[in-house]
Amino acid sequence: MEKQGEKRNVDFSKGPVWRSILAQALPLTFAQLVHLLYNVVDRIYIGHMGGDSLALTGVGLTFPIVTIIMAFTVLFGNGGVPLFSMARGAGETEKGRRIQGTSLALLLVSAVLLMAAGYAFRRPVLFAFGASEDSYVFAEEYLNIYLAGTVFVMTATGMNGYINAQGYPRIGMISVVLGAVANIILDPLFIFGLHLGVSGAALATVISQAISAVWVLRFLFGKGAVIPLAWADIRIDRELAGEIAKLGTSNFIMQGTTCVVQIACNATLQQHGGDLYVGVMTVINSIREVFMLPVSGIIGGAQPVISFNYGAKNYTRTKQGIWFNAIVGALYTMTAWLLIHLFPRVWFSIFSDDAELIHVGIEMLRIYFFGFVFMSFQFAGQSAFQAVGDAKHAIFFSLLRKIIIVLPLTLLLPEIGFGVRGVFLAEPISNVIGGTACFLTMRHTILRRLDKLEAGQ
Questions:
Q1: Would residue 268 count as lying in a domain?
Q2: pLDDT single digits (tens) 102-145
Q3: How many domains does the chain fold into?
């Protein structure tokens, strides 16, 4: 295992591409699995606080706000990682250092602004998101503490990608594991031991993210980093900030549109079904996060490899990385769909022991996950566009699936006879249309261009 004091230069242009991707993806997938525990463990404990789903519903109402914070995190964090990888592949060390510094500066500034806005507007925002007077109590209780840790959340998540991009996926994994283990230990202590309830879950998350943030910065400023940060680098370079924001916009839109869809779903479900169905969607979102992890891990592991080889003008390996993403993602999502379809009660029961919630949720879970395989096509195409710097297509397909397809269907289907089922049906329809369109466009643009570049070498 890599240690912080050891420095090595990982060359993604050597060895089998699939091996380079898996060397990145496996630790990253494990790290993301552990990272998911930050929120999932909270929901599991909260869902079993007393058999009442209202607390879980209240926490679910904070998801759009958490998603907004993550949208800015990926905009300024993930947006810089492909640029950094291409700079490293091209041997531009100084540029790589300035990219890291600009990302961190942007993350810190936006974290402070988001925290202030969250405290100022949390009540009207939560009610706009579908809160009732009963569920608002729990939503506010969680958010009051969670917002205080915005700087830690954005720093830990936004900068960890630079550790992976330098070829240290295990160090990146440890940064997540440290915080998640702390969260797992602190959650039951604060929620049940100190009787803090929802506030305890939020406090455990904030402390855990602070631990992760310290670890990430300690590595990036240390001698073990291939391209280490210096305090002088933490400033906003306007030119690089524009490039980072441009490339990160696709991820920002993916998170931002997820936020918009979550708001629409919660508000529509509150109108047509009440707090019970908002709770069902909270559980389904949690299950979806769990099953999306391997896909996200493969994509996250492949992206620096693809970007590095594209920057090094090694187009054959660039194509191999893209196809590896698509094939492995499709095989996995088919398997995941079967597991969800055959054993829905098992997955739902993990997050709640409310009999009514489980009874209603099983049918909705099966509807929501139908056609899950097409999500892998969406992510394979999306990540390929981003990895080679094609921001235009990446942004378009982020908008297509959520804003052009999901959002209108979420609002329309319940009104034309589908009721609450229409909210859950919007997702699989968008997966089929959006995923197919994204992948085919990537196939006829990026892969064809790579074929021509390869032939001209």
A1: yes
A2: 989 999 999 999 999 988 888 888 887 767 777 777 788 888 88
A3: 1
3-state SS, one letter per residue, for the chain? CCCCCCCCCCCCCCCCHHHHHHHHHHHHHHHHHHHHHHHHHHHHHHHCCCCCCHHHHHHHCCHHHHHHHHHHHHHHHHCCHHHHHHHHHCCCHHHHHHHHHHHHHHHHHHHHHHHHHHHHHHHHHHHHCCCCHHHHHHHHHHHHHHHHHHHHHHHHHHHHHHHHHCCCHHHHHHHHHHHHHHHHHHHHHHHHHCCCHHHHHHHHHHHHHHHHHHHHHHHHCCCCCCCCCCHHHCCCCHHHHHHHHHHHHHHHHHHHHHHHHHHHHHHHHHHHCCHHHHHHHHHHHHHHHHHHHHHHHHHHHHHHHHHHHHHCCCHHHHHHHHHHHHHHHHHHHHHHHHHHHHCHHHHHHHHCCCHHHHHHHHHHHHHHHCCCHHHHHHHHHHHHHHHCCCHHHHHHHHHHHHHHHHHHHHHHHHHHCCCCHHHHHHHHHHHHHHHHHHHHHHHHHHHHHHHHHHHCC
The tokens describing 347, both together, are 């997955």
pLDDT digits (tens, 9 = 90+) for 27-37: 767 766 666 66
5 within domain boundaries: no
Q: For residue 279, give its domain range.
A: 17-455
Identify whether 3 is part of a domain.
no
Please indicate, yes or no, if residue 286 is contained in any of the structural domains.
yes
Closest residue by Cα to residue 297 from 100, 15, 21: 21
pLDDT for 363-398, tens place per residue?
899 999 988 888 888 888 888 887 887 778 887 887
Calculate the average pLDDT of the chain.
Answer: 81
